[in-house]
TrEMBL record:
Lineage, uppermost ranks: Bacteria, Bacillati, Bacillota, Clostridia, Eubacteriales
Coiled coil ranges: none
GO terms of molecular function: iron-sulfur cluster binding; metal ion binding
UniProt entry keywords in alphabetical sequence: Iron, Iron-sulfur, Metal-binding
Organism encoding this protein: Desulforamulus hydrothermalis Lam5 = DSM 18033
Protein name per UniProt: 4Fe-4S ferredoxin iron-sulfur binding domain protein
Length: 166
């Protein structure tokens, strides 16, 4: 099976390997590690206090998340140098889902801002509302932005742009 398109964007086959089952998504926040390269890296495993990331038997291994143990806390997200981990909460609202994403650009969006929701290919796919910005020292310079998005976009939105910037 061919993995990752030449442009580095995850293919549907890649994503099918890492997305939680629909029943788990429906229960609330859960991490998705969109980490598709075998590289020597494992801070996600060491950061998870829930033991939800299975122990690496080889540092080049890709992370495997036990979705039943993961509570969607997001601690692993700001430890991931590849900015490859996202948290999705499909149970956030009737019409909206929550997407937590790592964000290293400036200026940071502010709570209440309506930002442009962007997909993995960098394309605008709609709008999103910023509901929380986590930027404490614990985040180690990788802020975590919580976006409320239309439910049908929760598996598309993986970045955002502050309107009028860039
Ligand atoms: S979101 Fe929290 S519980 Fe889930 S894998 Fe990451 S650190 Fe572990
Ligand atoms: S920390 Fe990020 S890049 Fe490194 S193995 Fe974990 S998910 Fe992949």
């Amino acid at each position: 099976m061919r993995m990752l398109a030449e442009n580095g964007i995850a293919t549907p086959d890649d994503l099918a390997q890492v997305v939680p089952p629909a029943a788990r998504l429906a229960r609330g926040p859960v991490a998705i590690a969109e980490c598709f390269q075998n590289i020597p890296c494992d801070p996600c495993y060491h950061s998870c206090k829930q033991g939800a990331i299975k122990e690496f038997t080889d540092i080049n291994q890709r992370p495997q998340i036990d979705f039943d143990k993961c509570n969607g806390c997001g601690t692993c997200m700001s430890r991931c140098p590849g900015l490859a981990i996202f948290v999705v909460d499909a149970a956030y609202g009737e019409q909206e889902a929550l997407v937590k994403l790592p964000y290293e650009f400036h200026p940071l969006p502010a709570v209440g801002d309506v930002v442009t929701a962007v997909n993995r290919a960098g394309q605008a796919v709609g709008e999103a509302r910023v509901v929380r910005v986590q930027n404490a020292q614990a985040q180690d310079r990788t802020a975590i932005i919580w976006l409320a998005v239309a439910k049908d976009l929760m598996m598309e939105v993986r970045h955002c742009k502050v309107k009028g910037v860039g």
